[in-house]
Amino acid sequence: MLKNFILTTGVSFAVAFSVLLLLVYGEIGRVVLDRPNERSLHTVAVPRAGGLAIMAGIIAAWGMAWQPELFPLIGSLIFLVVLSFFDDLYGLPAGWRFAAHSLAAAFFLGCYMPSMLDQGWWLLLVLLVGIVWTTNLYNFMDGSDGLAGGMALFGFSFYAFGAWQAGDGELAFPVLAIAAACGAFLLFNFHPARIFMGDVGSIPLGFLAATWGLLGWQRGDWPLWFPLLVFSPFVVDASVTLLKRLLRREKIWEAHRSHYYQRLIQMGWGHRRTALVEYGLMALVGVSALCLASQAWLLQIMGLMLWAAIYYALAIAVDRLWFKLQCPKIGIANQ
User: Fold this and answer.
1) Model pTM?
2) Burial bucket for residue 150 (CB in 10 Å: 0-12, 13-18, 19+)
3) Going by C-beta distance under 8 Å and a sequence separation of 6 or more, which residues neighbour residue 246?
4) Is 37 inside any structural domain?
5) Picking from 26-30, 105-109, 296-300, 310-314, which range would have the lowest pLDDT averaged per residue?
6) Is there a contact between 153 and 54 (Cβ–Cβ < 8 Å)?
7) Is residue 226 in a domain?
8) When comparing pLDDT for 39 and 246, which is higher?
9) Using alpha carbons only, what angle is made at residue 287 by residues 311 and 195, rounded to the nearest 5 degrees?
10) Taken in order 149, 151, 154, 156, is the CA torsion positive or negative?
11) pLDDT tens digits, residue range 93-122?
12) What percent of the chain has pLDDT over 90?
């Protein structure tokens, strides 16, 4: 058991850290630069291939652990890594990206959850849409120093704790390898970031957040709501922002800076403070998810309702403060 822990975390961290050194300090990292645009919260070009290091650490650890059942997932992961790297380099059409994400999700469901078809095709469709949405919302939320890396470190660590709590070491160790690789990345990504993960990191991490969440549910390690609560800081922000943009009839595929975390930074919180506050929120939802998972269903519902109320209050507070700060600017502009 100790050997598996050292193997998964040690190999993943060491490989990711080594590749990050090459990307941050070597010329190869200059191949893909994140140049500031209307969505950006940074002002200078920064290397954005950090996701390659994260994925290298994960795949190396999984390969050394030698679990044959992981091979289909590794295949899906490599497919998304290659696709997303080309997207970082050349910018692929949105339709192509969503089609590829749907293909990866369908392949995962076909390999790991074919029995779900017995419960109705609609359930598989819901799961497929959920995987594709989580894959992309992680990308939407990757726009601030230390945020996406921290979410991955906390989220996958709580997955590992949840599996360990359920006595499922076979799931805990591979998931812990993801957290370890993201921990190495966070050393270079916390403000001021020296490298970003790019789509090559955020897209596969979103896919892994969805798929490992479903695998834990299928294996009886946790309820279906568990991964949603663990990753709720991203799920809520991205979903509510998308809904608001749809209601305003905005083009949801265009770059913007209207996520709640983006507004906090624009209101003067800065990258560091925003990340630290988000880390606190991630820790709270993760601990509460672990505590609620073993409780009676009525307590689980009450806990989820309480978190829904908390998120509603937080969203209202940020919206009101944002509106208050924007009103003087609107008034000046109209004079």
Assistant:
1) 0.91
2) buried
3) 252
4) no
5) 26-30
6) no
7) yes
8) 246
9) 75
10) negative
11) 888 999 999 999 999 999 998 887 677 778
12) 60
User: Residue 300 to residues 233, 267, 285: CA-CA distances in angstroms?
Assistant: 18, 35, 13
Rg of the Cα atoms in the chain: 20
Residue 171 amino acid letter: L
Angle at 143 between CA 322 and CA 210, to 5 degrees: 110
**Domain tally for the chain?**
1
Determine if residue 146 is left, alpha or beta; phi over 0 gives left, psi from -120 to 50 gives alpha, anything else beta. left
Contact of 133 with 243, CB cutoff 8 Å:
no
pLDDT tens sequence across 60-88: 999 887 678 888 999 999 999 999 999 98
258 lies in some domain: yes
Q: The domain containing residue 277 runs over which residues?
A: 2-32+42-92+100-334
In this prediction, residue 188 has a pLDDT band, given cuts at 50, 70 and 90, of very high
Phi, psi for residue 249 in degrees, rounded to 5: 55, 40
Provide, for the chain, the percentages of residues in helix, strand and coil under a 3-state DSSP scheme, each rounded to the nearest 5: 80, 0, 20
**DSSP codes of every residue in 95-107:** HHHHHHHHHHHHH
Print the SS3 string covering 130-154.
HHHHHHHHHHHCCCCCCHHHHHHHH
Residue 114 covered by a domain: yes
